Amino acid sequence: MDACLNKNSKAEIASVAPVRPSPEEVEAAVKTLIAWAGDNPEREGMSETPARVAKSYQELFAGYEQCPRKILGKVFTEIGGYDDIVLVKDIPFYSHCEHHMVPFFGHVHIAYLPLEGVVGLSKLVRLTNVFARRFQTQENLTAQITDSINEHLNPRGVAVLIEAEHMCMSMRGVRTPGATTVTQRFSGVFADDSSERDRFFAMVHQK
Hints:
By secondary structure, this protein is α+β, with helices and mostly antiparallel strands. The protein folds into two domains: 7-60, GTP Cyclohydrolase I, Chain A, domain 1; 75-205, GTP cyclohydrolase I, C-terminal domain/NADPH-dependent 7-cyano-7-deazaguanine reductase, N-terminal domain (GTP Cyclohydrolase I, domain 2, 2-Layer Sandwich), CATH 3.30.1130. The protein contains nine helices and five strands; from the N terminus they run ααααββαβαβαβαα. A five-stranded mixed β-sheet has the order 3-1-2-4-5, sandwiched between helices. Helix 5 (121-132) crosses helix 6 (138-153). The longest helix has 16 residues, at 138-153. It is elongated.
């Protein structure tokens, strides 16, 4: 699990999953799900599926093994006095709904107003993937990205906007493909000054 979790978070996760199952246990569980869906896990097309799923989960949920602090740990202070908005927009992401374990995906827009320095632009993409590659809700993903930037960069403000389509709505339930869910969170100057929020929205939607 994430080495950056605080003691309370570690205890909370440990109470849910104290020991990571073995690959053999994972494959057995996948076989059970295949049978529950109504198929034969032993037929030719499905016989190797449990092993493939176990392997793919290591990639799809790699965020549990990654540390935001390490990603945002290197700050560049020689920026020529630049103190205006830094925005990385249209960051694609793929995550899994923690309620139904099906994908949701879309784009993240991240902005911050530097105070003590900036990070490499690719780090904001990596940070997004750390939290996206876990079981998630879109609301929590928005908050985690914002809080992590605040904690490790100490900027004057952070703005995060996420637009996503949820397969739990598109494929099942109300079955409304194409519906977009939008979440946003602001801190610091972005929370206190509506003109800064307006600038952020204008930059995000600028073509």
